[in-house]
Amino acid sequence: MAKSTNSRDDDSTDFGFDPGSQRELEVEDTCCVSGDEVSSSFCRFPDYRRGTMMVMSKGIALQQLRKGTTLETFRKVLVKRHGKRELQDYKS
Fold first, then answer.
1. What residues does 52 pair with on adjacent strands?
2. Residue 75 lies inside a defined structural domain of this protein
3. Residue 53 gets which letter from DSSP?
4. CB-count burial class (<10 Å; 0-12, 13-18, 19+) for 32
5. CA dihedral 39, 82, 79, 29 (to 10 degrees)
C-alpha cells in the first residue's frame, strides 16, 4: 500500500528551537501578580532577563483572561521588574 503524501507524519513540528543557541526557561514558582506560590501554572510569559517563565495563579489567570488583559498584565510586570526598555526585546 502506498504511503499518502498528506499523512500526519509528514506535518512539520519544527518550531525553530535551536538547542545550541536557545535554552528552555525555568518556570517561576510564584504568581507574578500576587506573589502567591503556584503549584501549577495556567498562563506563562517569558522574562528573558531572569531566564524564567512568569506564571499566574489560576484565579488571577481566569480574571485576566475574562477581561482580555493577560498579555497587558504580563507586560506591566516586566516593566515593574526591569523598566520600559525591557519590552523592546518582545516582538508582540
1. 26, 47
2. yes
3. E
4. buried
5. 0
